[in-house]
Specification:
By secondary structure, the chain is α/β, with parallel strands linked by helices. The chain has nine helices and five strands. Strands 2-3-1-4-5 form a five-stranded parallel β-sheet, sandwiched between helices. It binds BIS(adenosine)-5'-tetraphosphate (B4P). The site of BIS(adenosine)-5'-tetraphosphate (B4P) has 28 residues, from helix 1, helix 2, helix 3, helix 6 and helix 9. The site of BIS(adenosine)-5'-tetraphosphate has 28 residues, from helix 1, helix 2, helix 3, helix 6 and helix 9.
């Protein structure tokens, strides 16, 4: 199976949910920038203090902050990994590519989780995290369309993108994903 993967998709599409399962099953490092940022907020570090208000509004945390987090994790990890929620815009994608070149690694597959807005919104409202209210969700979707969605064409042009239907039960999507990755 491919060992260096990237999960792309709108907020609430199930990136974190599926990434956690796949990484546990395949022994990959699961690197979720959302989880790492929330841990910094929880710990009250200077980085967390900077990120907190940005995350609460649904905007993206600064590229420099996120990159520093990703770099420190990937530099010390020789095995496989699964990036979840990163990159979130073209500058982050370009920075990731130069980091990987310096580490003599490369992305082997990009999985795009696709789901209708109405279902995304229902899932996020049901979760009820601090940034899961109607107004912030609408902003996160707009940020996704403007800043993150251009990555679809970016990775498609590199022949790396596979599309995964994010509708259905968590188990059903996990099965679909597993069969996609053995191809
Ligand atoms: P993230 O933590 O990445 O959150 P997300 O995109 O909203 O969630 P995800 O798609 O992983 O959904 P999940 O599986 O949890 O980002 C949060 C914030 O952090 C961003 O807004 C931004 O401010 C900041 N940030 C993160 N990365 C950044 C970066 N690189 N640069 C700058 N800023 C960054 O699923 C959602 C819910 O649906 C869960 O409750 C789950 O249980 C449920 N669910 C999942 N699959 C389901 C299914 N099949 N059926 C029913 N429910 C399902």
């Amino acid at each position: 199976m491919k060992q260096r993967l990237l999960f792309l998709g709108p907020p609430g599409a199930g990136k974190g949910t599926q990434a956690q399962r796949l990484a546990a099953r395949e022994g990959l490092l699961h690197l979720s920038t959302g989880d790492l940022l929330r841990a910094e907020v929880q710990a009250g570090t200077p980085l967390g203090q900077e990120a907190e208000a940005v995350m609460a509004s649904g905007e993206l945390v600064s590229d420099a902050l996120v990159l520093a987090i990703v770099r420190s994790r990937l530099e010390h990890h020789a095995g496989g990994w699964l990036l979840d929620g990163f990159p979130r815009n073209l500058p982050q994608a370009e920075a990731l590519e130069s980091l990987l070149t310096s580490l003599q690694q490369r992305i082997e597959q990009v999985i795009l989780l696709e789901l209708d807005d109405s279902v995304l919104i229902q899932r996020l409202l049901a979760r009820g995290r601090a940034d899961d209210n109607a107004e912030v969700i609408a902003n996160r979707l707009q940020v996704y369309r403007q800043q993150t969605a251009p990555l679809i064409a970016h990775y498609e042009s590199q022949g790396l993108l596979r599309r995964l239907d994010g509708a259905g039960s968590i188990d059903a999507i996990e099965e679909r994903l597993a069969s996609m990755l053995v191809d």
